[in-house]
Amino acid sequence: MYALLLVFALPALGVPFVYMAGKKSPRAAAILVALIALVNMALLFTTVPTILNSPNHEYVESYDWIPILESEFTLFADGISVSLAIITSVLIIVAAIFSINYMKDKKNLPVYYSLLTLLSIGLVGVFITSNLLLFYFCWELMLVPAYFIIGGWGYREPYRAAFKFFIFTHAGAVFVLLGIGAIFMVTGTTDMFDAQAALMSVSPDLVRWILLALTAGFAVKMAVVPVHMWLPDAHSEAPSPMSALLSGVIISAGAYAILRLSLGTVFPAVAGTTFGIDFLHGLTIFGVISAFFGSLIALVETDIKRLIAYSSIAHMGYVMFGLSLFPSAPIIGTVAITAAITGTVLHLINHAVSKGLFFLSAGAIMHQTEIRDIREMGGLAGKMPFTAVASTTAALSIAGTPPFACFISEFLIFVGAFEVINADGFFLLPTALMLVATVLSLAYSLRYLSHVFLGNPKSEGKKKILDVPNYMKVAMAILVILVIVLGIYPTFFVHLINTVQFI
Amino acid sequence: MVGIVDVILPIASLITFAILTLPVFKTIRKTQHRTGLTLIWFSIAFLVSGAAVANLAIQYYSLASSPSPLPFLNITLTDTPLAEFSSAFMIDGISIYMAVMFVAVSAVVLIYSMFYVDSSRRPSERYFAIMLILAAALMGAVFSGDLLTLFIFWEAAAAGSSFLMIYKKDPVSLNSTLKYLVMIIIASAFIVFGLSIVYGLTGSLNFWAVREALMVLADKSLLLIAFILIATGYAIEAAIVPFHFWLPDAYTAAPSSSAAFLSALIDQGSYYVLIRVLLFILTPPAVLNWTFMLAVMAALTMIVGNMFALIQDNVKRLIANICVADVGYNLVGITSVTALGLTGNLYFFLMGGITTALSFMAIGVISRHGFRTFDDFAGLGRKMPFVSLALVIAGLSFAGVPPFGGFMAKYLVFTAAIQANLSWLAVIGVLTSVLQVAYILRLVNYMYAKNPKDDHVIKEPKRLLIPIFILVAAIIILGLYPQIVFNFIKPITEQLKFIPQITP
C-alpha cells in the first residue's frame, strides 16, 4: 500500500545513483532514469484496479507531514490524475532514451540526468496529490530543474529563455500560493476535497478572488494567450527531450490544475451565479483566442521548433475551450463527468503523446541536419525515412486527422460542446470558431510536412544526412505506436476518466 | 523549580569560555595539532553551553506540563517586595527557542570562522572570544525579564558586534563600523529616553508590572511619546526602512564570517526584541494604530530592500540588501499577532538566519579569490561548483522557492497576514518575492551562463565547505519536513492565549 509514496521516493533516492552512473557512462544514467520512470509507471498501474473497483473510484494514501498546518502528505489518485501520471512517466522514459543519442556530445551529462530525475518527481507528483501544499511543492519542483536544463543545455541564448520561463511561471505560481493561503485561511484545511466542501459556505466575494488568482496562476503555466510569451522561447531553445516534456507535461499540468483546483475545488462555491457563468465564458474567449493566435503564427513561423511551440499554444486553446464547458449549474450531489471534460482530459493525454513525438522528431531533424529553418530543408523523406514517418504521424495527429490520437479527443470536445450549446447559446459561435481552427491546424501541419520532407533539398548540407541512431528510433517508435493505439482504442483511458465524479 | 542558577548558567558558561579562550589559544599555538585542539576547545564550549540550555529547557517544560498558572517564569534576584525593581529574568517558550537557535547557529558559524579568519594568526583569539561573548549577551537578552536587563544585554550584543565588523581594520570597514556605532548609540539614546518615561509612568521596568500599569493608565499622551521613542530606537537597530541604511554598508565591509554571524544572530535578536517589547508590552494599551503602521513599514522595507538589491553590482551588497528585505518579511509575521504569525516568525528567524548565514559564508569563500561583482562571478558555476551550488540554494530559499526552507517561512507569514485581514500586505510580499527571483536568477545567469575570463578550476577549501553544507542540509531538511521545528513552536503559540487583549 505504499505505491504512491514509492513514486515519490524512488526518483528522490535515485538522484545520487543517477549522478554516479552518469560519471561512468551517460548511457547508463539515461537507462537508469528510464528504469525509474518505468517502475513508477508500473506502481501507478497497480492503483488502477482500486480506482476502477472501489466505490469512490479513488486511491488514497496519507502520511503525517505538518500537523500544525492541518497538512498531511496525502497522495491520491483518481481516474484523471492516474492517467495523466502514467502518460507523464511514458514521456520521461522516452525523453531519457532519446537523450542518449541526442545529448551525446554535450558536457556535464551526469548533472543533466540528475536534474531530469529531480524533474520527474515534480512532473508526476503534481498529478497525484490532493494536498494543496504538497501540490505547490511539486508545482515549483517542476520549475527549478527545468530552468537549469533549459539554461544549461539549450540553444542560442538558453539562459535568457530559461529566465523568461522561470519568471513568468513563478509569478503565476505566487498567485497560486496566495490562493492556497487564502483557502487555508478561510477553510482551515489544505486538502482539496475538504476545502471544496468548506468553501461552499464561504462568502462568494472572497471565493471569486481565490478563483481568479488560482486560474490566472495556472493559466500562465498553461501558456494561454495573453500569458503565453514565455512558451515559444522556452520550448524552442530547450534541448528537444526537454521540449517534449515541457510541451507534453508541464503545460498539461497547468490545464490539470485548472480542472482540479479552479473548477473542481473552488468553482462549485460560485457555480450557478452570474459570476460563475461569466467566468466560464471568459475561459472560452481566452481559449478561442489562443487557438487562433497559436495556429496563425504557426502557419507563418519558419523556425522548426518555434512552429511546434506555437502549435502548443493553439492546442492549449482547445483545452481551455474544453475546460470552459464545465457544468455551470450548481452541482447537487454527485455529477458524472461530461463528454466535454472527458474529451479535454483525453486531449491532454493525446496532445502530450503527439506533441512529445513532434518535438522529438523535430529534434532528430535538427540533430541530423543542423538546420533549424524549415525553408532550408526539403526532400528529407528519402534521407530520413524513419523520422519522416514519425513526423507525419505526429503532425497528422496534431492536425486532428483520424485514426491518430488527437482526432478522437477533439471529437469528444466538440460532442460535449454541442451538448452544452443546448443549454447555453453563448457557446454556439466559439464552437464554430474552434471548428475553423482545426482547419488551420491541418494547414500548418501540412505546410510543415511539405517544407521539411517533400520537394527537393534546398541547401547543401555540411555533411551527408543519415537517418537517426537507434536509441532515437526506439524513443520515437514508442510514441508512434502510442499515438496510433490511442487513436484507435482510447477505451482504457476513457474508462478511467469516466470513473471521476464531481461532488 | 527553575532557579537563578539555571538561567545564568548558559550565559556564564559562554562568557567563561570566552575569557579562557585567550590563554588557551596561547598554549594551543605552541602545540603541533593546532586545528584539532581549537576544534575540540570550541566543541567543549558549545557542548557545555548547549547542555546548560538543554537543562533549562527540560526544567522549564517539566514545570509547564504540571498545572502552572502562567507559562512565563519570572526569576528575580531577591525575594523582597522590592523584587520588581531589581533585575529580573523571564523564561518562556520563545526565549528557550531563541537560545537553542543561538547555540546551534553560532556553533556552525564559529566553526566556519575558525577556518575563515585563520585561527593560527595572532589576534584571532579575540575574534572568537568576542563571538562567544556576543552569543552570551544575546542569550541574556532573550532571558531577561525587565526592560533594563533587556536593554543592557541587547546593547552589549549590538554595540559589541562592531568589534566583529572592524576585524580587518581597513578604511572601508572603519568607516562603516563608525556609521553603525553612531546609529546604535542614537538608537540607544532614543530607547533610554523612552524607557525613562515608561519608568516615570509606571514606577517599574518589569515586563508584566509595566504592562499591567500601562493598561490602566488614564492619560496616555506621555506613553505615546515613549512609545514612539522606543519604537524608533528598536526600528533603527532592526534596520527597518527608513532606518536601514547602515546595514548594507556594515555587512558589506565586515569580513564574511562576521556578516554571517551578524545576520544570523544579531538580526534575529533584534526581531525578538521588537516582538517582545512592542507587541507584548507596549502595544496592548493601544495608544495608536500600531499594527497598521508596522504593516506600512513592513511593506516599505520589503519594497526598498528588494529594489536596492535589484540594482546592486556587488554580490555581497546584494545579499546585505536581501537582509533588509528579510526584515520586512519578518515584520509581516510580527504584524499579525496570531498563532500562525508567531509560528511563521519563529520559523522565519531560524530559516532566515540560516539562509543569510549560508550566503555570506559562500560569498566569503568566493571573495577570497577576489570575486566581488557580477562580472567576477561569470562562469563561477564551473570554477567553484560546490560553493556556487550552495549560493544558488540560498538564493532560491530567499526567494521562497520550495522545497527550501524559505518557502515555508514565507508561506506562513503571508497566510498569517491574510488571516489578519492584511491581504494587501501579503500581495506586496508575494510580488516582491517575484522581484527576488528576478535578481537571484540574474546572479544564477552570471554564474552558469556567462563564460569565465579564465578557465582554470579553483580548488575549494574542504574545511569551509563542511559548515556551509551543514546549513544547506538544514535548509533542505527543514524545508521538506518543517514539523521538526514546529514541534518546538507549538507550545509557544499556546502562550498567546495567556496574554489578555493581545488582539485589538
Question: What structural keywords apply?
Answer:
heterodimer, A: 503 residues, mainly alpha, two-stranded antiparallel ribbon, globular, B: 504 residues, 19 helices, 2 strands, 75% helix
If you had to describe this structure to a student in words, what would you say it looks like?
- The complex is a heterodimer of chains A (503) and B (504).
- Chain A has 503 residues and is mainly alpha-helical.
- Chain A is 74% helix and 4% strand.
- Chain B is mostly helical and 504 residues long.
- In chain B, 75% of the residues lie in helices and 2% in strands.
- Chain B is built from 19 helices and 2 strands.
- Chain B has a two-stranded antiparallel ribbon with strand order 1-2.
- The longest helix of chain B is centred in the N-terminal third of the chain and has 32 residues, at 34-65.
- Chain B is globular and about 70 Å long.
- The two termini of chain B are 34 Å apart.
- Classes of the chains: A mainly alpha (503), B mainly alpha (504).
- Chain A binds chain B through residues 64-69, 133, 136-137, 140-141, 143-144, 147-148, 151-152, 158-159, 163, 166-167, 170-171, 174-175, 177-178, 181-182, 184-185, and chain B through 343, 396, 400-403, 407, 411-412, 414-415, 418-419, 423, 426-427, 430-431, 433-434, 437-438, 441-442, 444-445, 448-449, 481-483, 486, 489-490.
